[in-house]
Amino acid sequence: MQMPDDRPLSRLGLGSYHVAGVYGGVDEENFVRLVQVARDEGVTLFDTAPSYGEGEVWLGRALSCRREHVLISSKFLLPPETTPVNVKAAVITACEDSLRRLKTDYIDLYHLHYDDESMPHEPVIESLTLLRAAGKIRRCGLSHVCSQRLETYLASGLFSTVMMEWHPLASSPFFRVAKQAPAVSLIGYSVTGRGLFTGRFNGPVSLTPGDIRNHDPLFRRENLSAGRRIVARLGELGRELERPPTQLLVAWALAHDQIACVLTSTTNEAHLRENLAGTRYQWPKDALTEFCAFVRQVREDTRLSRKQTVERLLNGTVPTDVTSARRDIIYVLESMHNDDAIPLHVLMPLFGQCQKASKLGDLELIFRQLQELAGPPA
Ligand SMILES: NC(=O)c1ccc[n+]([C@@H]2O[C@H](COP(=O)([O-])OP(=O)(O)OC[C@H]3O[C@@H](n4cnc5c(N)ncnc54)[C@H](OP(=O)(O)O)[C@@H]3O)[C@@H](O)[C@H]2O)c1
């Protein structure tokens, strides 16, 4: 895909979510060094967001020279105090703030991070159009938006990219919608499944207390077992094809004809180089067909098993310690969302409440809301 000024979008992009400390400690010097290694190796896309801790500031510093050779992607959110009448001002202020933190005059790809369905979409489109006309953003993108609003946004013709989670267990409703908009490129994130599909969690999962994966449904129950099944198959195929499994994983993610680029984040140069090597590998056709069928089967087995787990959890009671209660509720919440039982505009506030809840009583209230949303037991 060609971007503004004919700069190509590299097949691997480097993210900066980890700068928020979600996977453990980070240091700026190492981050800057890895951004420069990636750039020297041909990576053109660097993704960040205001919610990624110091991500925008560090990325701005790392890319301050040769700015014109790279594409910076950042995102915006409407702050909680936004009302339908001040959406435009909120988007413009968010963009000005990002430009200041990034120390740049323009953002190449500016994504709506989470769509707020309680707000009209027209002022979002109008403000992005204004920002583009002023040269402050070059292209617009979307992420975390329900399929219906995605169609509405894409119909405006303003959006060039859609970001979506893309790994073997990701549910992918955007593929269908994006098919109707061939000019739109899909950017897949979390391609290593936050490390799960690299095999580094094959033994007991031991994470530091602040690590977001402690509550991540991908690292629990049938999802974790399914992740290990995928890793085992990648290992077998890796021996046959004489390729490290993680390279096969990255190459598989890029083999989807609608995926233009995949994003990973890393603190480790060897991991970066491994992910880059994956972009240069092409699966033999038969092996790819066989692995895609295997992935579809694992995904379907996992979906069915997860449905049963969710029913069982909803028919039971909330665990009596806050940590286990929060984990189970997040598991149910995300699983119901993936099965279309909870729309995005219901998911997001409940998810926020769940993260903030410090008392069991608050979590029990959320649990009861989920029981109501699920309806009576089958
Ligand atoms: N639009 C959105 O809402 C959205 C949502 C999520 C993410 N994103 C973007 O996408 C980027 C990537 O997402 P992500 O952080 O979830 O990506 P990810 O690459 O799936 O997960 C990062 C984790 O995987 C590990 N890892 C990466 N490559 C590895 C390898 N070759 N071998 C072993 N471990 C490896 C990293 O550990 P090490 O540090 O040890 O390598 C890190 O713990 C984010 O940084 C962000 O910019 C966007």
Provide an overview of this structure:
The protein has helices spanning 28-40, 55-62, 87-102, 122-133, 147-155, 174-179, 221-241, 245-255, 269-279, 285-315, 322-338, 344-356, 360-374; strands at 12-14, 45-47, 71-76, 107-112, 137-143, 159-165, 185-189, 259-264. It is an alpha/beta fold. α2 links the parallel β2 (45-47) and β3. α1 packs across α2, α3 crosses α4 and α8 (245-255) packs across α9 (269-279). The protein starts with 11 loop residues before the first strand and ends with a helix. The relative contact order is 0.10. The structure holds NADP nicotinamide-adenine-dinucleotide phosphate. NADP nicotinamide-adenine-dinucleotide phosphate is lined by residues 15-18, 23, 47, 113, 143-144, 163, 189-195, 198, 200, 246, 263-268, 271, 274-275. NADP nicotinamide-adenine-dinucleotide phosphate binds at residues 15-18, 23, 47, 113, 143-144, 163, 189-195, 198, 200, 246, 263-268, 271, 274-275.
Set down the secondary structure blueprint.
Elements: E1 12-14, H1 28-40, E2 45-47, H2 55-62, E3 71-76, H3 87-102, E4 107-112, H4 122-133, E5 137-143, H5 147-155, E6 159-165, H6 174-179, E7 185-189, H7 221-241, H8 245-255, E8 259-264, H9 269-279, H10 285-315, H11 322-338, H12 344-356, H13 360-374
